[in-house]
Design a protein that fits this description.
alpha/beta, Aspartate Aminotransferase, domain 1, Aspartate Aminotransferase, domain 2, 2 domains, four-stranded mixed sheet, 19 strands, binds pyridoxal-5'-phosphate
């Protein structure tokens, strides 16, 4: 049998040698990344001009003055002003392997050697088939029965496709159930599902959405009873008209990493089963951030997973469905589903999660989360004026800084950015600081380096640097060029 030209090229010794040289080059240049670095004074003026030009062209300034140079190592990333920062938000969950991971360099080379930049529904390569198969296998490994799926280009499109296949199956049901303070994306339809008025200001109402209160860890039984009552009331008010309920199992953007519990979710999902309302699990943010690939597996909800969406760290996004949700031809398609480099990178990341000990109760994801939350819990005990919480688990961690006033939290996060650590805001009343760890590129030692910086900036942001420490926490060193390793 003749060898495929693509395989022959991939195995060409010159390609092997080129990859070796690239890996070596990367390693040599990454050696310079030893810790946080302030901006280079010679680059400051040019950087400010670039930011101003970008702001003028965008019509708005960037949230942070962040423009990457394109280089980093692990959690450390270089900005175009020469500064190096700890990236603890990872592109809001995308840069899971940290910056310039060598295995992704190889995936990039393989993709660049491929014949096209983009793959789409009409023309795609074998790696698209491989990725969809790998995602379905990962989703079904604890008993879920997801039979089909389709790749897509964003989390919002994955959710949009999910809603479309569900509506088609459940026709004429035309309403959606969602949690209060949930976030599902920003398409026209999803901005109705996302429970934030500011994100749909001026938009026509496209979709009827009924909201159910989320789990409250401070009132487990009462909040479960309230959610069950609200769900039953909605179902009774619009009999047969709800197509699905969307579940964000750990509330992210809106909640600041609030997990529900298996009992809470089961109580609702059982009712939905009886009422023949689809369970749509939105794992755009939770995928790869708990003890399992999917949070529905972490919470043991496999039997209820009718439709599941995932994105962010998977690079290519996807909608996975049970067999009975297969849409009629023409309902779901796109010119391009994902760039080849995203598809190849996704395969590398999935294998890394499986082979490098990331999963499981004692896996790296949960260990990193424990290290971070233990420190935050200790801080909250010692300095309740500075911090409350923590919230979240595994690769998604949050806390309430400075009482949770949005302006104060944003100021703290900006100060933290200037000090060399990148986080992001979530929720409101109280607002939280959240962190999405670059799991494949960060170690517990990095958290140990970052934490004193976080604590010092918090104290400074509170304007009470001298306030008394009531515990035995580590001394807080000043922020300077760091000596930590990524
Ligand atoms: C739970 C959830 N769903 C959907 C989305 C939308 O994903 P994207 O921003 O890729 O469109 C997000 C993004 O933050 C999310 O957190």
């Amino acid at each position: 049998m003749a060898k495929l030209a693509a395989k022959a090229m991939a195995e060409d010794p010159r390609v092997t040698e080129a990859k070796r040289l690239l890996r070596e080059t990367l390693r040599d240049h990454q050696a310079a990344f030893t810790g946080i670095r302030p901006p280079d004074p010679d680059l400051r003026a040019g950087y400010a001009e670039t930011l101003a030009r970008f702001a003028a062209n965008r019509g708005a300034a960037l949230h942070y003055p962040y423009l990457g140079s394109g280089m980093g190592r692990g959690a450390l990333v270089e900005l175009a002003d020469g500064s190096v920062k700890y990236d603890f938000i990872s592109g809001i969950g995308v840069h899971y392997m940290g910056h310039n991971h060598p295995s992704l360099l190889e995936a990039g080379v393989d993709a660049a050697l491929g014949n096209t930049v983009m793959q789409g529904n009409l023309q795609q390569n074998t790696d698209s088939e491989e990725l969809l198969g790998a995602l379905l296998a990962a989703a079904n490994r604890k008993g879920a029965k997801l039979a089909h799926g389709f790749l897509t280009s964003s989390g919002a499109m994955a959710n949009e496709n999910a809603l479309k296949v569900i509506f088609q199956k459940r026709f004429p049901a035309n309403r959606v159930l969602a949690f209060e303070h949930g976030f599902a994306g920003r398409t026209l339809a999803l901005s109705q599902v996302t429970d934030k008025a500011a994100y749909r200001k001026g938009l026509p109402e496209m979709l009827a959405v009924d909201y159910v209160p989320f789990y409250d860890a401070a009132r487990p039984a009462a909040s479960t009873a309230e959610a069950v009552a609200a769900l039953k009331e909605h179902l009774a008010r619009h009999p047969g008209l709800h197509a699905c309920m969307i579940f964000e199992l750990i509330q992210g953007e809106g909640g600041g990493y609030l997990p529900g519990t298996p009992d809470f979710f089961r109580a609702l999902m059982r009712i939905l089963r009886t009422a023949e309302v689809t369970v749509l699990v939105d794992e755009i943010q939770t995928f790869g951030r708990t003890s399992e690939y999917f949070a529905f597996q972490h919470f043991g909800l496999d039997e209820f997973a009718d439709v599941v969406t995932l994105g962010k760290l998977s690079q290519a996004c996807a909608t996975l469905i049970r067999a009975e949700y297969q849409p009629k031809p023409g309902l779901v398609s796109q010119t391009f589903t994902a760039p080849s480099v995203a598809i190849k990178s996704a395969l590398v990341i999935l294998e890394y999660m499986d082979k490098q000990g990331l999963l499981g109760a004692e896996g790296k994801i949960m260990r990193l989360g424990r290290r971070f939350t233990e420190k935050l819990a200790d801080l909250a005990r010692r300095r309740p004026d500075l911090a409350a919480g923590p919230f979240g688990m595994g690769g998604m961690i949050a806390f309430t800084p400075l009482g949770g006033d949005t302006d104060k939290v944003n100021r703290f996060l900006r100060n933290l950015f200037d000090a060399g650590v990148i986080g992001f805001i979530a929720g409101a009343n109280p607002a939280k600081a959240r962190f999405l760890l670059p799991v494949g590129g960060v170690e517990e030692a990095d958290i140990d380096i970052v934490f004193p910086i976080l604590e010092r900036v918090l104290a400074e942001s509170a304007g009470n640097d001298g306030a008394k420490d009531t515990g035995t926490g580590a001394a807080v060193p000043p922020v300077g060029p760091g000596k930590g390793k990524a």
